[in-house]
Amino acid sequence: MKKDIHPVMHPVIFRDASAGKDFIALSTATSEEVEKVKGVEYQVVQLDVSSASHPFFTGKQKLVDTSGRVERFKRQQAQAEK
What we know:
Blueprint: E1 10-16, E2 21-27, E3 34-37, E4 40-47, H1 55-58, H2 69-81
Parallel strand pairs: 1-4
Antiparallel strand pairs: 1-2, 3-4
């Protein structure tokens, strides 16, 4: 087997911005943001959606619309029905 071909694993905090939850894991993901927890330095990776906020896992339908696509779609549907 070839040596030094695998990416470096390090401790990471995956932070779900919409649910306010943190998940600590080993990952190859990197980030400039660093946080110390219990003396261990973690890189912080921001997430938009995780299992803590996704409707499939939570059982709640929560609509997150950042660019107005839903309103535009509803407007187009209303015009098409006329």
